[in-house]
């Protein structure tokens, strides 16, 4: 690790949590240069839904490179982009009756959120945007203004403005009443509040502590947004692409967002890609080149992302995800019940599960113990109090079992 400690910026974080040098990876395992194998319950913070070095994607990418495919194209038309778009429309949009436009931007989730904010403000002519407590939407200034985490916000160095903060459904003061109260304030001409440009919400706050919103509350947010002429934006960056047991985290909830922000898993292989799905009437407000970026045409990501979409041509993988998610939740519930008096709570849906151990120092100690035993897992939430499990959706059963045994053993032995 000496080279990294000497030359790499102090900003590095994950390498401090996992202090070893990794040399190879396959599906749900990473191997360090000393030959030690680790079960990966972190999966690139939700990027590697289909595992490290997915063989189907690897073969497609190698063939693309050997054929001198167009690896970088800005927003020019290429055969690989067309193949991805056609596959996405046929596999994701058309079965849901959606006619949304696909907007590619710089290949990060934060850039997807920035583009959504720009468009919402352009469409409505308004400045303020509603975001929710404990939300995480990115590190650039617009998306950081939406983000609730004080540690991240403090690094901005400038005011993070034009955001109205409402409590998330599961946060103190949250729920339907809070939405009704905000509605009443907007209706009061003497409240001093003006209608926002958009409501931006995660259905599951992943970095915020695996906080899960109900379909009823999300529908109420959507209704309020539309009633006041604002756009309803779902940030599905970490929990889409099959993470919850369906392609979108909100499938079957009766929601009709104006913009859906996607990144992380849509690139398939771990190569970067970000994309917003935008209703055509809103997308028509963009002027050509009004939101640009050098790396919008990621050829390798289009190739791997198209291959990732084949997992959704039937329900086989999603059936597995739902079953594995139940196993993960059951294992965490057993640990929570054993830790009587510690007020542990299990939250999640599908293959994103969180164990809230209340104390950030305890969670950090458990994560360190897991690493020493061969498991990669990371804390999240307020003060890092929640152990978040997001293994690859393709994790073999034996690796899932081993990882859960390491985690539960680490929690018991750290109590």
Helix coverage percent: 25-40%
- Write down how many β-strands occur, each being a DSSP E stretch of 2 or more residues: 17
Distance between the termini: 30 Å
- Backbone CA Rg: 21 Å
Tell me the overall shape.
globular
The percent range for strand residues is 15-25%
Show unreliable segments: none
Order of strands side by side in the largest beta sheet?
Answer: 4-12-11-10-7-5-6
Largest sheet: 7 strands, mixed
Number of DSSP helical runs? 15
Structural class from helices and strands?
Answer: alpha/beta
Mean pLDDT: 97
Describe the structure using short key phrases.
415 residues, alpha/beta, seven-stranded mixed β-sheet, four-stranded mixed β-sheet, 15 helices, 16% strand
Short description:
This protein is α/β, with parallel strands linked by helices and 415 residues long. 39% of the residues lie in helices and 16% in strands.
What do these coordinates show?
This protein is of the alpha/beta class and about 425 residues long. It is built from 15 helices and 17 strands. The protein has helices spanning about 1-5, 15, 45, 55-65, 80-95, 110-125, 140-145, 150-155, 175-185, 215-225, 280-285, 300-310, 315-340, 360-375, 395-415, and strands spanning about 20-25, 30, 35-40, 100-105, 130, 165, 200, 205, 210, 230-235, 260, 275-280, 345-350, 350-355, 375, 380, 385-390. The strands form four sheets. A seven-stranded mixed sheet has the order 4-12-11-10-7-5-6, with helices on both faces. A four-stranded mixed sheet has the order 1-2-3-15. The longest helix has 23 residues, at about 315-340. The protein starts with a helix and ends with a helix. The model has no long low-confidence stretch (mean pLDDT about 95).
């Amino acid at each position: 690790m000496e080279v990294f400690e000497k030359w790499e910026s102090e900003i590095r974080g994950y390498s401090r949590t996992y202090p070893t040098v990794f040399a190879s990876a396959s599906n749900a395992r990473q191997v360090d240069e000393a030959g030690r194998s680790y079960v990966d319950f972190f999966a690139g913070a939700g990027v590697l839904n289909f595992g490290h070095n997915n063989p189907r994607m690897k073969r497609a990418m190698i063939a693309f490179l050997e054929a001198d495919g167009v690896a970088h194209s800005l927003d020019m038309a290429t055969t690989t982009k067309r193949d991805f778009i056609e596959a996405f429309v046929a596999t994701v949009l058309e079965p849901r009756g959606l006619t949304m436009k696909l907007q590619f931007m710089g290949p990060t989730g934060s850039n997807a959120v920035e583009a959504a904010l720009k468009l919402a403000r352009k469409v409505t002519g308004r400045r303020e945007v509603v975001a929710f407590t404990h939300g995480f939407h990115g590190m650039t200034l617009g998306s950081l203004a939406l983000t609730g985490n004080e540690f991240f916000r403090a690094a901005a160095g400038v005011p993070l403005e034009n955001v109205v903060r409402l409590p998330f459904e599961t946060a103190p003061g949250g729920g339907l009443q809070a939405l009704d109260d905000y509605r009443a304030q907007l209706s009061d001409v003497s409240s001093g509040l003006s209608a926002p440009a958009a409501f931006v919400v995660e259905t599951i706050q992943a970095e915020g502590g695996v906080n899960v919103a109900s379909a009823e509350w999300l529908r109420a947010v959507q209704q309020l947004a539309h009633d006041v002429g604002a756009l309803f934006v779902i940030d599905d960056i970490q929990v889409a692409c099959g993470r919850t047991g369906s392609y979108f985290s909100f499938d079957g909830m009766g929601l009709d967002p104006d913009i859906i922000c996607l990144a992380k898993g849509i690139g398939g292989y771990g190569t970067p890609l970000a994309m917003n799905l935008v209703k055509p009437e809103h997308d028509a407000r963009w002027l050509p080149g009004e939101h640009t970026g050098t790396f919008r045409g990621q050829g390798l990501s289009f190739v791997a992302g198209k291959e990732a979409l084949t997992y959704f041509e039937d329900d086989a993988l999603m059936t597995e995800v739902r079953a594995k998610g139940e196993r993960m939740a059951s294992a965490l519930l057993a640990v929570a019940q054993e830790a009587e008096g510690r007020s542990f709570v299990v939250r999640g849906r599908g293959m994103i599960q969180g164990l809230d151990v209340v104390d950030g120092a305890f969670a950090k100690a458990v994560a360190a113990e897991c690493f020493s035993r061969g498991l990669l897992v990371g804390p999240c939430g307020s003060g890092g109090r929640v152990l978040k499990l997001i293994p690859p959706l393709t994790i073999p059963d034996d690796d899932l079992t081993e990882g859960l045994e390491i985690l539960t053993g680490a929690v018991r032995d750290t109590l």
